């Protein structure tokens, strides 16, 4: 055991904060890409991986749902992170002197009102923590970064304005991935089962496949589609449901789903995080 949890991004990224919140006893291992974070677990450099899958403002994280079935890893937990955005400057800088702010394009878009109100021009950076690192190295009192409070601590930047995001409920959902599955647990707030499937090429197959969840009282909290291998005829679906595969009603629903699909792969069975409620 390495007691490490891998994440994509530079130290101070929101994924880094998610690691600290969900696994405070583990060392967070920064990785260049999502694939690198997954490979770190598969190669034994880390025990777990923390992967963002969706944001309440911007929807799903691109490519993640394609990577999950291919990863060889299992979802063992979920974690919700409230995304607070701070304007960070070098020591001695003042909000009134900031003319430009750098961050990932998504964060820049989440602070449009604040930036317009203060006549601050936007500069697109590769990522949030990397932008904070750049500002720290640049030592320009007119340049700031939009990033997490953790990034400010790591790179020695002052908070010039805090919680400047336009959407006060902005939240990102993360999945904790492990090489081995654990279906023995029962969460205090219920269980979530995540899986992917492809429907058979027959009329109304998806409609009929979903019917089993409705008739058996299984709540489906997420259903998303994406193409498989660039084909317009093969569509794969990702789904989250409330419940455990051992529950009688879930078993009945999954049996009905199996009849109308060509492939079902369970990605994880894990306790529902109270953050989802």
From TrEMBL:
Identify this protein by name: prephenate dehydratase
A GO term for molecular function: prephenate dehydratase activity
EC assignment: 4.2.1.51
What is the source species?
Pontibaca salina
**Residue limits of the ACT domain?**
194-271
Q: Where is the Prephenate dehydratase domain?
A: 4-179
Query: Gene3D superfamilies, per this entry?
Result: 3.30.70.260, Periplasmic binding protein-like II
Pathway(s) annotated for this protein in UniProt: Amino-acid biosynthesis; L-phenylalanine biosynthesis; phenylpyruvate from prephenate: step 1/1
Which key words are in the record?
A: Amino-acid biosynthesis, Aromatic amino acid biosynthesis, Lyase, Phenylalanine biosynthesis
Task: Name the enzyme's class.
Answer: lyase
Any Pfam family hit: PDT
UniProt superkingdom: Bacteria
Which Gene Ontology terms describe the biological processes this protein takes part in? L-phenylalanine biosynthetic process
Is Lipoprotein a UniProt keyword of this protein? no
Any one cellular component term from GO for this entry? cytoplasm
Report the NCBIfam families cross-referenced here. Answer: PRK11899.1 (NF008866)
- InterPro entries from the xrefs? ACT-like_dom_sf, ACT_dom, Preph_deHydtase, Preph_deHydtase_CS
What is the catalytic activity of this protein?
A: prephenate + H(+) = 3-phenylpyruvate + CO2 + H2O
């Amino acid at each position: 055991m390495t007691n490490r949890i891998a994440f994509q991004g530079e130290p101070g990224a929101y994924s880094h904060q998610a690691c600290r919140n969900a696994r405070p006893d583990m060392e967070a291992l920064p990785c260049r890409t999502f694939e690198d974070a997954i490979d770190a677990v598969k190669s034994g450099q880390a025990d777990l991986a923390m992967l963002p899958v969706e944001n309440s403002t911007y929807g799903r994280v691109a490519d993640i749902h394609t990577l999950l079935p291919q990863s060889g890893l299992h979802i063992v937990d979920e974690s919700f992170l409230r995304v607070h955005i701070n304007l960070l400057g070098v020591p001695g800088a003042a909000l009134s002197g900031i003319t430009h702010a750098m961050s990932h394009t998504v964060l820049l878009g989440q602070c449009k009102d604040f930036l317009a109100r203060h006549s601050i021009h936007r500069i697109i950076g590769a990522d949030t923590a990397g932008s904070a690192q750049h500002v720290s190295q640049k030592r320009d009192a007119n340049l700031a970064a939009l990033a997490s409070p953790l990034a400010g601590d790591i790179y020695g930047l002052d908070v010039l304005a805090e919680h400047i995001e336009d959407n006060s409920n902005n939240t990102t959902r993360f999945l904790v991935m492990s090489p081995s599955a654990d279906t023995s647990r029962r969460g205090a707030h219920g269980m979530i089962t995540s899986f992917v499937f492809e429907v058979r090429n027959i009329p109304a197959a998806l409609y009929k496949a979903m019917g089993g969840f409705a008739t058996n009282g299984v709540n489906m909290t997420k259903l998303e589609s994406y193409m498989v291998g660039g084909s317009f005829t093969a569509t794969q679906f990702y789904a989250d449901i409330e419940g455990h595969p051992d529950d009688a009603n879930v078993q009945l629903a999954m049996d009905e789903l199996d009849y109308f699909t060509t492939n079902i792969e369970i990605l994880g069975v894990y306790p529902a995080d109270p953050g989802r409620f």
